[in-house]
Design a protein that fits this description.
The protein is α/β, with parallel strands linked by helices. It is built from 20 helices and 13 strands. Bound molecules: pyridoxal-5'-phosphate. The site of pyridoxal-5'-phosphate has 16 residues, from α12.
Length: 435
Amino acid sequence: MKYRSTAGTSPEVTLEEAVVKGLAPDRGLYMPERIPALPESFFKRLPEMTLPEMAAEVAQALFGEDVDPAMLKALTEDAMNFPIPLVKVRDNVWSLELFHGPTLAFKDVGARFMARLLGYFNRGNKDRLVNVLVATSGDTGSAVANGFLGVEGVRVFVLYPKGKVSPIQESQFTTLGRNIEAIEIDGTFDDCQALVKQAFLDPELNGKMMLTSANSINVARFLPQMFYYFYAVAQLMAAGVKTDEIVVCVPSGNFGNITAGLIAKRMGLPVKRFIAANNANDIFFEYLNTGEYRPRPSVQTIANAMDVGDPSNFARVLDLYGHSHDAIAAEISGCTYSDKEIAETVKATLEKDGYQLDPHGAVAFRALEEQLKPGETGIFLETAHPAKFKETVEGITGKEVEIPERLAAFMKGEKKSVEMAPDFNTFKQFLLSHK
Ligand SMILES: *Cc1c(COP(=O)(O)O)cnc(C)c1O
């Protein structure tokens, strides 16, 4: 399978090139040249399949031409080695709990898969060292660092804004050591992102080192996220719920997660429609309402992993629907909630339904509450464990949130990081000294 750029001027590339490059040279995002339909027999077997089995079959349909089948099966099953249960919150509303992985957020899925795929492409290539650069405001850095920990031939540089990520999040990428290097930037998240972007554009750096990204612009990170959409529907089937009117609601920031769901639907997954739930950063909601896409600087909210002012995967959504606003609006609806509304939802859902939402899941839950029609069954993606936002959640509910053991374990490690001014030359020299 070849991968083409959404910008349309770069040549098509192999899966390996798309994964190693990240972004296409014409600044477009890579898309599979065609979306394979899964056979009816696959959907018949869905309710009996385990998550690793299901993931392996979906991976085979997408990546089977480009990766040795036995290796692909093994690496997919290894990446998907934690549970993703679908939990009933109300009669017609279900939570897909994506927070049972090593760093307690859904990004573990894509990060673990990408790390293993990159390791596969690097096998036997002892001289090639791939450098993954990642700017993070919290969740991406921890998932990527843990996903890539110990993968041969890959080194990870995590850039994060000093004093602006929670201690729990910071400990998840500064205490690992080995092939993970944490860089603490004296500035904002935007400064971190700017340094990374500039590095990808610097001819001298790229001539001397192989650099790639591990955010959701990378096909190896965003595509595997479709595994759990199939698994969510499979669990509904297994519970005896009819599957002809399923609505899936995704708390969205960069739109990598929901785009994977949209592609799963093209592969045959029975989802009637999607809701892209936004916090105050509601550029997509505005696009649905007006037909105009106007990116703007992000504002800070309590669902901070969704604080994105120019969602990078919007280009993929446009591409999937042939740039037709009507086609997009027919399949995806939107919403926007303030911090006050998000907090109300966290509190009310704990009191009424006995279910502890995190602020991101709360945005999606509220959208289903308001938009679900009679006869429809709603699934929302609970993208992070509430303990990752312990102070915020406890401030809202007045009740303690327990920290799971594997999260507490990170906090016991010793922090190692390099402090740096937000200056490109300093960053560049630092990278070159690691050549
Ligand atoms: C990254 C993240 C999101 C947003 O996902 P996108 O794929 O960027 O839309 C939502 N919730 C949590 C907890 C996240 O970490």
